[in-house]
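User: Fold this; tokens only.

Assistant: Input:
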Amino acid sequence: MPTKYKNRLQKFRERYTDRSDYEKSLARARYAVNSDAVKERSSQRMQTDTTSRNKNRVYMKKRIADDVQYRERNRVTATQSKKRRLETDEAYHAAHVESAKQYKKRKLQTDEAYHAAHVESAKEYKKRKLQSDDKYHAAHIKNAKEYKKEKTTD
């Protein structure tokens, strides 16, 4: 036979579980009605809440540094999403092209080995193009004649 105290504790626990189940059901019902607003608010919070973003950034950096499999999966998915975004988003594609041009220009100015390799590959490309493309060859001859004519008149 349980004591009066044990009975009180048991009733208290039952009331607590009943109340929490009731509140959970109310919360589910509210979410079902307002799910769009809730999703919108939570996405906006992730964009504006710098503390959460910084915590997440630190956690992800640590995870990428520690977990090799996650790092590889992350690299693959990042590449796929970047390709997809470059194909679909024209503004992103234009910005990517522009930044690539700036990067290449800066690297050509600062890295001498890269510049020398670039000059070599450009010479090889021009040789191949002159041999394989007749229109390019004809335009090259025309430009060379004009240049020679200009050079002799000066």
